[in-house]
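Q: For a teaching handout, I want to show students what a protein-ligand complex looks like in token form. Below are the inputs, and the small molecule is 6-aminohexyl-uridine-C1,5'-diphosphate. Please produce the holo structure.
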Amino acid sequence: MGLSSVILHLSYKFRLLLIFILCMMVVAWATSSYLVDTVQETPKAKSLVENFRKATMLEKENQKKKAMSTVEVHTVKSTMSHCPALSPYLQGPSQLKFKASLTLEEVQKENPQVAKGRHRPVECSALQRVAILIPHRNRETHLLYLLEHLHPFLQRQQLDYGIYVIHQAGNTKFNRAKLLNVGYLEALKEENWDCFIFHDVDLVPENDFNMYTCDKQPKHLVVGRNNTGYRLRYQGYFGGVTALTRDQFSKVNGFSNNYWGWGAEDDDLRIRVEMQKMRVMRPSPDVGKYTMIFHTRDRGNEANGERMKLLRQVSRVWKTDGLNSCSYKLLSVEHNPLYINITVDFSMPPKISCINLETSAVPLIACSETAKTQKETAKKQRRHGARSDAAIY
Ligand code: UDH
Ligand code: MN
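A: Here is the structure, written as tokens, with 6-aminohexyl-uridine-C1,5'-diphosphate included.
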């Protein structure tokens, strides 16, 4: 073989080798670039997945946080601790002063935290929701003094309370007991009060240890007042200011509606309480002290001549004379800044007017009874010594 043929032969082999190397390089490049791509792509995918995971975790965390914050709100609400049995704000006995020039605006200014006659502590949840019911007619000055002292007094006791003034419209005989029944029924329409304080407008408590809360037994809070030498008026006295739970008052069917004028409606309530085997409790004499704002007898509230007769029939009539037979005409319910004013009309509707107006010029056309039967009904009522609401309405 000559040199040229050797070179040719070599070059042919060399060319083959070259082609092979080239192919290998292409394959190597292709594979390597693919591998590099995948190696580079993986972190991208990884970070994507990571980001997604992070996002979902964040979302989950946010949801968790939200849930926790709502739980917190709920627990803050529901676990706001109960107020202590003995409020730390109580001051004990005080000498009350009544400024002659006091105005309602001044009392309102002194009590900016009271709205629509209501207030409750912000620092703790009150032990009881208490409705104060005040029967009222033509005693504006007394009401002013009572509001002035009662609002801070009840706040020092850390109560969730509302003050209701039940105002009797017109000039018909005053009926304290029936007004208090109305107060109970109307107050329960806006709040499920636990406890009711039946409160004369002219009695101002002197000692804030006299708790305006209800207990297992009905409470009589006026042990003594300045005008009786701070002594109980008589054994069994249950007037002035009393505290009964919603259930205790409902159990006795409330007050009788039939005591028109002054006297004995409070004794009637005590009899009802005792008939239900409940016992009247009182605070100690140094705590149950009141100042009574001086007054004379009101016109329209003269002593009720029938009161002794009425007292004798309590056991017979209590089931049908009380909350379940208390009919009245509701004239208005106003939510004033310092109290809720309920105005009612107890004036006689046409049927009884017929009986009472036998001598008047009012025509009797609205009557279902004849003049003769009206007279007989009136006689019967007088014989039984009571004007039952069932007969009136
Ligand atoms: N009341 C009124 N307006 C009236 C009558 C009574 O708001 O016209 C209310 C008021 O809440 C009062 C309560 O009913 O506190 C009881 O009536 P009262 O204060 O007349 O009864 P009290 O037993 O007085 O205190 C009886 C008459 C006092 C005569 C004094 C003579 N010595
Ligand atoms: Mn009085």
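A: Two things your students might notice: The first strand starts at residue 118 and ends at 119. Residues 200, 202, 292, 295 surround manganese (II) ion (ligand 2) (CB under 6 Å).
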